[in-house]
Design a protein that fits this description.
Distance between the termini: 72 Å
Radius of gyration: 23 Å
Number of helices: 2
Order of helices and strands: HH
Structural class: mainly alpha
C-alpha cells in the first residue's frame, strides 16, 4: 500500500497536484455560491425599488 502511495518516487508531486486541484475546485464552488447570493440580493433590491416606484 505504501508503494502505491509513493508511486515510484513521484507520489509527492502526484498527490500534491491532486490536492491543489481539489482545493481550487472547492474554492471555485464557494466563489460561485457567494456570487450567486450577491446577485440574488441585488435583484431583490432592484425589484423592491421598482415596486416602490410603481406603487408610490
Amino acid at each position: 500500500m505504501s508503494e502505491w502511495f509513493a508511486m515510484g518516487g513521484h507520489g509527492l508531486y502526484i498527490w500534491g497536484s491532486y490536492f491543489v486541484t481539489a482545493l481550487f475546485m472547492i474554492v471555485e464552488v464557494i466563489l460561485v455560491m457567494r456570487r450567486r447570493r450577491s446577485l440574488v440580493q441585488r435583484l431583490g433590491r432592484m425589484i423592491r425599488m421598482k415596486d416602490s416606484e410603481v406603487s408610490g
